[in-house]
Design goal:
Elements: E1 12-14, H1 35-47, E2 52-54, H2 63-71, E3 81-86, H3 97-109, E4 114-119, H4 125-128, H5 133-138, E5 141-147, H6 151-162, E6 170-174, H7 181-184, H8 187-194, E7 197-201, H9 224-229, H10 233-248, H11 254-264, E8 268-272, H12 276-286, H13 292-305
Parallel strand pairs: 1-2, 1-8, 2-3, 3-4, 4-5, 5-6, 6-7, 7-8
Length: 317
């Protein structure tokens, strides 16, 4: 009965920013997105084998799921994989809040099942995890992951699922050159030893590690990410300069190097895609093989920046 680790592309595609309403400065990222623009992103991604789409109820309170479903219209369900999340902090008070939130997601996504379903943030692991079991048994969810959980919480969730013949098959945590809490806490090793796929999100630190921004070119004013990152951009300069140089030797950008680093560390990066050009970057990143010295140098520069980019929703790992 135990299912195999989900087969996924080298990079998963994030749609957190798709939850923005589309008005400039209105939403977490301050993105201006159009239905036709997102459809082009989907077409280019699908054509290049990037077929795993990661969303969540709380990305624009359902807006991201709805917009993603529209953008995927016309593709056979077998041609793409959907990853969405149960967020305990947004749960209703009903008899079975997990099943209830999943039903709403399935409705918005226009599908009968989700390939990968996550407990988004840890709350009461012993309370929420058992509610996933009937959903696995019914086939409404194919694989289970936990996000933003520490080692103890991951192990407890795995134990609870294990009693019913299932297991935690994926972990999704914030992981970047600036934030390696999961590595230092032994979570990457835990995943490697147990054939659990580790998905790294915020690999580009919401744009701050793309090399496109700096003290002279800050992130879009009025957005949450501008508030979080603009003040630390000067400290990131040495790192992003080195990433740009490493990329330049390979016809790639600083962002491509950050993604290649996350892949080299044995993780599956979830990269937010709002433009077709970002797909070109993922293709380039997949072709970059970083030398061990380059990885060590980038990590040393990341440590030297000495910034704390832990999100307000995250616990210490």
């Amino acid at each position: 009965m135990t299912s195999k680790t989900p087969a996924v592309p080298a990079v998963a595609l994030g749609t957190w920013a798709w939850g923005d309403s589309g008005e400039a400065g209105d939403g977490y990222f301050g993105s201006q997105l159009t239905a036709s623009g997102l459809r082009e992103v989907v077409e280019k991604a699908q054509a290049n084998g990037f077929t795993l789409w990661d969303t969540a109820v709380v990305y624009g309170m359902g807006h991201s799921e709805t917009v993603l479903a529209q953008a995927l219209k016309g593709y056979a369900r077998s041609e793409y994989q959907l990853s969405t999340k149960f967020t305990p902090q947004a749960a209703a008070d009903g008899d079975d809040p997990v099943a209830e939130m999943l039903e709403q997601s399935l409705g918005r996504l226009g599908t009968e099942y989700v390939d990968l379903y996550w407990i988004h943030n840890p709350a009461d692991v012993a309370r929420w995890t058992p509610l996933l079991i009937p959903l696995l048994q019914s086939g409404k969810i194919k694989h289970v992951g936990v996000s933003n959980h520490n080692l103890k919480q991951i192990a407890l969730a795995d134990q609870i699922l294990g009693e019913a013949g299932f297991r935690v098959e994926a972990v999704q945590n914030h992981y970047s050159l600036l934030y390696r809490g999961s590595e230092r806490a032994g979570i990457l090793d835990y995943c490697r030893e147990r054939d659990v796929r580790f998905f790294s999100y915020m690999v580009l630190e919401q744009g701050a590690l793309t090399g496109r921004y700096g003290p002279a070119h800050p992130l879009p004013a009025g957005s949450n990410r501008a508030a979080a990152y603009n003040g630390i951009l000067p400290k990131l300069q040495a790192l992003t300069d080195r990433m740009r140089a490493i990329g330049g030797n390979r016809g790639a950008s600083a962002a491509d190097v950050a993604t290649a680093w996350a892949i080299a560390k044995g993780t599956t990066p979830i990269i937010g895609v709002t433009r077709t050009s970002y797909i070109d970057g993922l293709i380039r990143a997949g072709g970059i093989e970083l030398a061990d010295e380059e990885i060590a140098e980038l990590e040393a520069l990341g440590d030297a920046a000495d910034v704390d980019t832990r999100g307000w929703w995250e616990q210490e790992m």
